[in-house]
TrEMBL record:
<keyword id="KW-0489">Methyltransferase</keyword>
<dbReference type="InterPro" id="IPR013216">
    <property type="entry name" value="Methyltransf_11"/>
</dbReference>
<dbReference type="GO" id="GO:0008757">
    <property type="term" value="F:S-adenosylmethionine-dependent methyltransferase activity"/>
</dbReference>
<protein>
    <submittedName>
        <fullName>Class I SAM-dependent methyltransferase</fullName>
    </submittedName>
</protein>
<keyword id="KW-0808">Transferase</keyword>
<dbReference type="Pfam" id="PF08241">
    <property type="entry name" value="Methyltransf_11"/>
</dbReference>
<feature type="domain" description="Methyltransferase type 11">
    <location>
        <begin position="41"/>
        <end position="135"/>
    </location>
</feature>
<dbReference type="GO" id="GO:0032259">
    <property type="term" value="P:methylation"/>
</dbReference>
<dbReference type="InterPro" id="IPR029063">
    <property type="entry name" value="SAM-dependent_MTases_sf"/>
</dbReference>
Length: 266
């Protein structure tokens, strides 16, 4: 099952989201828990934020990572120098591993881009041994992403064609309170817990904030890239005004919240 995330380049993704997923990764790892000797699977590794954070734990025996995007897989492989890590292109809804292979399966900022996210959770559960842990985190786009919501809410004031895209952005799979927990329970996981994780996204300037979107990265970037020139100029100016909020251009900080869920394989 393909991801709905729009990929232009690995470097663009790093500026858009990779730098923030690296900040979130240790929090998901702490929530999921690790033990020496664990075999861990990273489902939807992207450019490797979670994979290479896991690799900082010398006691792990094996780290497997998959992503649907060949662009991300190539970029992550190019970064890798750890013999414990194996990275491959694969579908989160059809993992290429035998049953009970891993001690833990983690997924960072991925399930909300999988149209049939329940299948991905089922596959993560299948490949983890009894007693092992499945854990995931997704952004709370509706209520927890102030910086990104600012973009969408600004854009829809200029273009009503963006309304259905904003709705899709705000209510992707697994984003409603309790939705991941219900999905984990439905897939047979036990002792399921859901919580929220908070980071801050700190930008140096409007260009630092807007450049990856302007270059076409991600869902909003894909939309912006398709605008005719006059409307594109209006969108650029309006988002800049929202970012600056009447003050000179410069650093801004936005609170960003992710839902996180974990469960034990029965």
């Amino acid at each position: 099952m393909p991801s709905s995330f729009h990929v232009e380049s690995a470097d663009g993704y790093e500026r858009l989201m990779g730098r923030w997923s690296r900040t979130l990764a240790p929090m998901l790892i702490d929530f999921a828990g690790l033990a020496d000797g664990d075999r861990v699977l990273d489902v939807g590794c992207g450019t490797g934020s979670l994979t290479f954070t896991l690799a900082q734990r010398p006691g792990l025996r094996e780290i497997a990572a998959i992503d649907y995007s060949p662009v991300f897989v190539e970029a992550a492989k190019a970064r890798n120098s750890d013999p414990r890590i194996a990275i491959q292109q694969a579908d989160a809804c059809a993992l290429p591993f035998e049953d009970n292979r891993f001690d833990r399966a983690l997924s960072l900022l991925v399930l909300h881009f999988v149209p049939e996210a329940g299948k991905a959770v089922a596959e993560m559960t299948r490949v983890v041994r009894p007693g092992g842990v499945v854990a995931a985190a997704v952004w709370d786009h509706y209520g927890g992403m102030s910086g990104m919501r600012m973009m969408w809410d600004t854009v829809v004031m200029l273009d009503e064609n963006a309304l259905p895209m904003r709705r899709k952005y705000c209510f992707q799979p697994m984003m409603r309170p309790g939705e991941m927990k219900q999905t984990f329970i439905a897939q047979g996981l036990a002792d399921v817990e859901e919580t929220s994780l908070l980071i801050r996204m700190d930008y140096l300037s409007f260009d630092d904030y807007w450049a990856p979107i302007a270059a076409g990265e991600g869902p909003l970037g894909k939309y912006v890239g398709g605008l005719e020139p006059a409307k594109r100029a209006a969108v650029d100016a309006a988002v800049r005004a929202a970012y600056e909020a009447g003050e000179p251009d410069g650093p801004r900080s936005f609170a960003s919240v992710a839902w996180a869920c974990r469960g034990r394989v029965a």
